C-alpha cells in the first residue's frame, strides 16, 4: 500500500508549531504495512488542500491520510476540500472513528471528518491530534488493505469492459 500524509495546520505550515500529528499518522501507516511516499504540511487553504489531494490521486497513491482541519472553526476546511475531490463517500469509516472517539470525549460529535474514494485512492480525514490518531487509526486499520485491494480489482474490471 502506497500512502501519503497531509497535515493541515496554518500554524504548523508557518513554522509556529511542531507537526506532531503527521508523524504519528505516518508511523501508524507504516506499522499497518504502508509505504509513505509523501508527508507534507499545508495551511488551512481549501484550494491548496484540494490541489494536493488531486495530485496524489493522479500519482496513484492508494491511501491518502489527512490530519487536521476537521473541526468547527471557520478555517477548518479539510472536509470541504476532501468532498470536492472524492467521487464516492465511504461513510462507515468516519462513522466508526466518531463512535470510537465518543469513548474518550463528547467533542467527537463535532468532528466533520470525511472518508471516500477518488480514482483508486482511499482518502481518510483524521483529527489534528496525535492522541486522537493513536485512538482512531486502530479502528480503520483492519480494513485498509482490503479496501485498497478492492479498489484495484474494480479498476481492473472497468478496464476490461472498456476494451
Overview of the molecule:
- The chain is α/β, with parallel strands linked by helices and 163 residues long.
- The chain has a single domain (2-162), classed as Molybdenum Cofactor Biosythetic Enzyme, Chain A (3-Layer(aba) Sandwich).
- It has helices spanning 10-13, 21-31, 46-58, 78-85, 91-101, 130-162, and strands at 2-8, 35-42, 63-67, 88-89, 115-118, 121-126.
- The chain has a 6-stranded mixed β-sheet with strand order 2-1-3-6-5-4, with helices on both faces.
- β5 (115-118) and β6 (121-126) form a beta hairpin.
- α2 (21-31) packs across α6 (130-162) and α5 runs antiparallel to α6 (130-162).
- The protein starts with a strand and ends with a helix.
Number of helices: 6
Spatial order of the strands forming the largest sheet: 2-1-3-6-5-4
The 3D shape can be described as globular
CATH architectural label: 3-Layer(aba) Sandwich
Note poorly predicted spans. 155-163
CA radius of gyration is: 15 Å
**First-to-last CA distance:** 27 Å
The portion of residues assigned to helices is 40-55%
Q: Within the CATH hierarchy, at the fold level, what is the topology?
A: Molybdenum Cofactor Biosythetic Enzyme, Chain A
Question: How many strand segments?
Answer: 6
Question: In percent, how much strand structure appears in the residues?
Answer: 15-25%
Mean pLDDT: 93
Succession of helices and strands: EHHEHEHEHEEH
Q: Main sheet, how many strands, which sense, barrel?
A: 6 strands, mixed
What's the CATH first level? Answer: Alpha Beta
